[in-house]
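Before relying on records like the one below, remember that each one covers exactly one chain. Contacts with other chains, cofactors or solvent are not represented anywhere in the record.
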Amino acid sequence: MELLRIIISVLLPPLGAFLKVGLGLQFWINLILTLCGYFPGLVHIIWLLVRKPTRI
């Protein structure tokens, strides 16, 4: 499942962000970055995929 998420994230970064975090703030940030250019959205989704989740 993780490999499929990575492939989807590279092809469509906002969809990858949605699969990772849902319709939260990070999804909207990724959507805006991707609309500004593919590369900023790609960098953001890679960051989302590799960061460790924080516990509150």
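DSSP finds four helices and no strands in the chain.
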